[in-house]
């Protein structure tokens, strides 16, 4: 798994976008006490269910790989000239 440039910043933005996506669907309402790990797993499972992203093999579903996958998904949503992609 090759690390993206600005992967940490991309992940932070991706998590916010994922929360908006999930809450916009009306399937969940995250609480302020929910951890980033809980949100990440829920968003990943929802996006796989909605066929927004391809699933990982179940033995590879770990926080590090999910963070990377969500960051890639978000990077693909951004315009090429976005500062996080440079």
Taking pLDDT < 50 over at least 5 consecutive residues as the criterion, the unreliable ranges are none
CATH topology: Four Helix Bundle (Hemerythrin (Met), subunit A)
- The percentage helix is 55-70%
Number of structurally distinct domains: 1
Biggest sheet features:
none
Task: Give the C-level CATH assignment.
Answer: Mainly Alpha
Helix-strand pattern: HHH
DSSP strand count: 0
CATH A-level architecture? Up-down Bundle
Number of helix segments? 3
Taking the alpha carbons of the first and last residues, their distance comes to 19 Å
- Which structural class do you get from the secondary structure elements? mainly alpha
Shape: globular
Strand fraction equals under 5%
Radius of gyration of CA atoms, rounded to a whole number: 13 Å
Overall mean pLDDT stands at 93
Written overview of the protein:
The chain is mostly helical. The protein has a single domain (7-77), classed as Uncharacterised protein PF16691 family (Four Helix Bundle (Hemerythrin (Met), subunit A)), CATH 1.20.120.1930. The protein has helices spanning 7-25, 36-49, 63-77. The relative contact order is 0.21.
Brief overview:
InterPro entries: DUF5062, DUF5062_sf. The chain has 86 residues and is an all-alpha fold.
List the defining traits of the structure above.
86 residues; mainly alpha; Four Helix Bundle (Hemerythrin (Met), subunit A); 3 helices; globular; DUF5062_sf; DUF5062
What is the strand and helix layout of this fold?
Layout: H1 7-25, H2 36-49, H3 63-77
Helix pairs in contact: 1-2, 1-3, 2-3
């Amino acid at each position: 798994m090759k690390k993206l440039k600005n992967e940490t910043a991309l992940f932070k933005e991706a998590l916010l976008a994922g929360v908006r996506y999930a809450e916009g669907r009306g399937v969940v309402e995250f609480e302020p006490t929910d951890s980033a790990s809980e949100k990440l797993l829920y968003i990943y499972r929802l996006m796989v269910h909605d066929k927004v992203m391809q699933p990982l093999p179940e033995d590879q579903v770990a926080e590090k790989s999910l963070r990377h996958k969500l960051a890639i998904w978000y990077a693909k949503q951004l315009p090429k000239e976005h500062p996080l992609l440079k």
